[in-house]
Write a structure and sequence with these properties.
Elements (H helix, E strand, L loop, with lengths): L3 H9 L6 H4 L7 E2 L5 E5 L4 H6 L6 H12 L9 E4 L13 H18 L3 E5 L1 H7 L6 H4 L4 E3 L2 E6 L2 H6 L4 H18 L5
Parallel strand pairs: 2-3, 2-4, 4-6
Antiparallel strand pairs: 1-3, 5-6
The chain binds uracil.
Length: 189
C-alpha cells in the first residue's frame, strides 16, 4: 500500500484524464488522515480549484457549519475528499471516464484513512461508493455496511443552497450520523 506522501505526489502530477489540462490545482483532500469518519463529494468547484482544498466555497461553508452542529471539524475528527480531484469545466458532473480514471486515488485514501463511516455528499458520490442508480431523494440517510465500513449519504451542500427546503431532512440525517458515530467510532467524540 502506498503511503500518504507517495500517493499525494502521484495525484498532484496526475495526467490520467483531460481535466488535468484545465485545472489550477489538484484538490487532493483535507482533514485528519486517521479519522474514523470520511466525507466524499463529487469534484472541485471554482473556489476549490483556485485554493487546492475541498469544499471551501459557499457550499463548503454551509457544510462546515452543519457538521459543527454534530461535533465534526475537519481540523479535528474527519477527512474529506472527492470522487474526482480536478474541476470539471463549468462545474458539470464528472464523466464516467473521468471518475474511472480518478477513483483509484480515493480508494487508496480510504485504505490509508481506514474509516468506520463514509458519508457520501450527493448522488454522484453515492452512485460510485454505495450502488449504481442511487436515488438520493429516496435513499439519503439509509445505511449500508460493506467490507466493515458503514456508508450513508446526505444531500450535496450545493443542492441545499439551491433548495433550502431539503435542509430539515439533512438535519435528521446528521443526527443519525451522530448516533452512528457514537455506536461505532470510539475516538471521534
Ligand atoms: N463540490 C464538491 O462536490 N466538492 C468540492 O470540493 C466542492 C464542491
Amino acid at each position: 500500500m502506498a503511503n500518504w506522501e507517495e500517493l499525494e505526489r502521484r495525484c498532484l502530477a496526475c495526467q490520467r484524464c483531460a481535466l488535468a489540462d484545465s485545472r489550477t490545482h489538484v484538490v487532493f483532500g483535507a482533514g485528519q488522515k486517521d479519522a474514523e469518519v470520511m466525507f466524499v463529494g463529487e469534484g472541485p468547484g471554482e473556489n476549490e480549484d483556485l485554493q487546492g482544498e475541498p469544499f471551501v466555497g459557499r457550499g463548503g461553508q454551509l457544510l462546515d457549519d452543519m457538521l459543527s452542529l454534530i461535533g465534526l471539524y475537519r481540523d479535528k475528527n474527519f477527512y474529506i475528499a472527492n470522487i474526482v480531484k480536478c474541476r470539471p469545466p463549468r462545474n458539470r458532473d464528472p464523466l464516467n471516464t473521468e471518475q474511472d480514471a480518478c477513483i483509484g486515488y480515493l480508494r487508496e485514501q480510504i485504505a490509508l484513512v481506514g474509516p468506520k463511516i463514509i458519508v457520501c455528499l450527493g448522488r454522484i458520490a453515492a452512485n460510485r461508493l454505495i450502488h449504481d442508480d442511487y436515488k438520493i431523494t429516496k435513499e439519503h440517510g439509509q445505511w449500508v455496511e460493506k467490507d466493515g465500513i458503514w456508508y450513508t449519504s446526505i444531500y450535496h451542500p450545493a443542492a441545499l443552497l439551491r433548495d433550502p427546503g431539503k435542509k430539515p431532512d439533512t438535519f435528521v440525517d446528521l443526527r443519525a450520523i451522530r448516533e452512528k458515530i457514537r455506536q461505532v467510532c470510539p475516538r471521534t467524540y
